[in-house]
Amino acid sequence: MVMTFDILQKIIKKNNIPRNVHLTSDSGWECNATEMDGIYYNQSINEIVFTQEGSKYDYQYHESNDWQKLYGKGD
């Protein structure tokens, strides 16, 4: 599924994420734009991070108790 602003808004509303959330990306070292197909949220620091689901960068969030997965492939 392609990430759109509409989908992101729905995820944020559904999960009651504050509007002042800090948005970051951790998709790796690519030189070009990449698809955001993993979204994680850390409530204690009020941060959303976008990942490429299944990449080595995604696993640090997936396996952490501090990050809640909000969106991924198949969602």
Explain how this protein is built.
- The protein is an alpha+beta fold and 75 residues long.
- It has one domain.
- The protein is 19% helix and 24% strand.
- It has two helices and four strands.
- It has a four-stranded mixed beta sheet, with no helix packed on it.
- The radius of gyration is 12 Å and the shape is globular.
- It starts with a helix and ends with a strand.
- The mean pLDDT is 84.
In short:
The protein is α+β, with helices and mostly antiparallel strands. The protein has one domain (5-71). It has two helices and four strands.
Task: Name a few traits of the molecule.
single chain; 75 residues; alpha+beta; four-stranded mixed beta sheet; globular
Helical coverage, percent range: 10-25%
CA gyration radius, whole angstroms: 12 Å
The SSE string, one letter per element, is: HEEEHE
Tell me about the largest β-sheet.
Answer: 4 strands, mixed
Tally the beta strands.
4
Overall structural domain count: 1
Strand order of the largest sheet: 1-3-2-4
How many DSSP helices?
2
Shape: globular
